[in-house]
Each structure stands twice: as structure tokens, then as C-alpha cells.
Amino acid sequence: MPTQTATQIAKLGGQEITYTLTRSRRRSIGLQISQHGLRISAPLHTPLSHIDSVLQQKAGWITKKLAQWQDKKSLALDWSLDATYPLLGDSWRIASKPTGEIAMARSSSQELPQPLTIELTSRQIQTFVLSWYQQQAITCFKQRIELYAPKLALPTPPFRLSQAKTRWGSCNSRGVISLNWRLIQLPLHLVDYVVAHELAHLIEMNHSKAFWGVVGRVCPEYRDILKELKKYG
Known about the structure:
By secondary structure, this protein is an alpha+beta fold. Helix content is 35%, strand content 25%. The protein folds into three domains: 4-71, no CATH class; 84-131, no CATH class; 136-229, Metalloproteases ("zincins"), catalytic domain (Zincin-like, 2-Layer Sandwich). The strands form three sheets. The chain has a four-stranded mixed sheet, covered by helices on one side. A three-stranded antiparallel sheet has the order 5-6-7, with helices on one face. α4 (188-200) crosses α5. 17% of the residues are buried. The model has no long low-confidence stretch (mean pLDDT 88).
């Protein structure tokens, strides 16, 4: 029997929660919560009453996690000419130069007011915007690393752009820092926190009290900044 998927509704903690139920040849019930909502995976012949019982047992956890995702600020991008694209907290758009070439301009800018007269597919827009993002990210991240490394008495380490799904940054045992290109969409003080965090790992390769002490030397408000960063999905 093939996998079966359906939409169901459960009442948890006084709330009606819509979830996606997928039945397949598995042995246990699995729960997953993401930006897409609640997803349940269950064995093929599990009664709905049993699934509901499991949901009731996990009701507090489910409603808490769903609320956290609802509070997150989405960085999903729409590949269209009318879309806006965040860069370091500012809003940018695709505009046209007097020559007819396309370029990126601040939404509030009057420098490139020309209406677009060409047709672009969503794939062409995606390629153009992602290339722009990566160029901006490389320039910005390099500058911020060069700014913060001396504050920790560190030589400037090599870095690369990352496309990680769940990490803003990382640091490997060879001393190479990876920074997620999507960071360039966030306000600069959040970028600076991630840079400081990864540089601190060159001194303390852990998350010990000593590590947070290093972070605090260059980013004393890191606790508040970390809370803000967690709001971005």
C-alpha cells in the first residue's frame, strides 16, 4: 500500500490545530514541527483515536513549538519583479538603470526609478538576486571578520559561504569559518554577533563559560542579540 497523506484537525489546549497526517509502513508515530506546521507520521492502520491520544499527551509541547514558529520572521524569498529583498535589514528591489540593465536598489531610493521594461522568468530573477546576495555577503563578512578578529588578538581566518539549513555559522578544527549567506539579509548587529561567535570558537572550541566570556569581550549584549536572532526562521 502506498504512502497516504491527509489533513486533519485536533483540539489541543483549547486551540484547533490543523496538521498533516502521513501514513506509511513504519512502526511508530512521529511528530515534526517546522515552518510548515505540525506533521504526523504514523503506521498505516493506526486509529485516529490513538493518534489524537498521542497529540493530547504532547499538547503543551506542540502548542509551544507552533507558537515559536509563528513568531519567527521568515526569510523566504519570492522570485518576482515586484518582490522586495532584505539586505542588512533594509528593503531592496529589482530596478532598471537608464541603460536598461537591471540592478538592485533600495526600495526607498530614487536613484533607479526607471520602470522595468523587460520580462524575466522567476529562474532568471533567482539567479540574479542570489548572485547579488553572495557578492554582498562576501564583501560584508570579510569586513566584519577583519574588524572583530583583532579585537580578540586573532589573525584574520579564512572563511567561506555556507548554505546550511539550520546553522548561521560554524568553525571547523582547521580554523575555517563558515557563514550562512542568508545572514546578509539580517541587520548588521546580528551579523556581527555571528561573526564574533565563530571567531570565539578559534579560542574556545566549545560552548563553555569561558567561550561565552570570549564572546562577551567583543559583544557584551550577546544574550539579547541571541534572543533576537532566534526569531528568524
